[in-house]
C-alpha cells in the first residue's frame, strides 16, 4: 500500500514525480475505468495542498456526467460549453482559472471554490472526460500543475478501458 503522506512534502517538481509514480503504481495492470478514476481522484484530493474537490466528469451524449470524485457533493450534469468543465470540452483545451467568480458562465457547485483547473481527457482524438480540481485559494494552479496534471490524464487515457462510457 502507498503512504500518501510521503508525497505531499517537498518541492513541486519532486511532488509531481512522486505523484506520477503513485498513479502508475495504482494503475499497474488495471484497466477498469471506474477503479482507476476513483483511485486517482482520491490520490489527488489527499495529496495536493489547498484543494477542496478533485474528480472526473464523463462525457455521455453531449453532456458531462459526474464520475468518481472526492469533496463535497457536486453538480451531476453539465452541458458541453457551460461552466469551466463544459468549456474545457467545447474548446478541447485545459482551463486554468485563477478566479472562478470572474469566469463567465461559472457554475458554482461549491461556494468555497475560488480557482479551478479542468483538463480534457482524450481517447482516439475525442474528449471522453475531464479531470476537475477546485481550490478555495485564488490563483492556486500554475503552469507546472497544468503540465503535470495533463500527464496524469494521458496515463488515464492510455491505461483505462473507456468503452464503458459510450
3D architecture notes:
With 166 residues, the protein is α+β, with helices and mostly antiparallel strands. The protein has a single domain (4-165), classed as Beta-Lactamase (2-Layer Sandwich). It is built from 4 helices and 6 strands; from the N terminus they run ααβββαβββα. A 6-stranded antiparallel sheet has the order 3-2-1-6-5-4, with helices on both faces. Strand 2 and strand 3 (77-79) form a beta hairpin. Helix 1 (12-27) runs antiparallel to helix 2 and helix 1 packs parallel to helix 4 (143-159). The longest helix has 17 residues, at 143-159. The protein is globular.
Structure annotation, total helices: 4
- How is the biggest beta sheet arranged? 6 strands, antiparallel
Overall geometric form:
globular
- pLDDT under 50 segments (min length 5)? none
Which percent bin holds the helix content? 25-40%
* Spatial strand sequence of the major β-sheet: 3-2-1-6-5-4
Number of domains as seen in the coordinates: 1
CATH fold title: Beta-Lactamase
Order of helices and strands: HHEEEHEEEH
Structural class: alpha+beta
How large a portion of the residues is in β-strands, by DSSP E? 25-35%
CATH domain class name:
Alpha Beta
CATH homologous superfamily name?
Answer: GAF domain
Cα distance spanning the termini: 32 Å
Rg for CA atoms: 15 Å
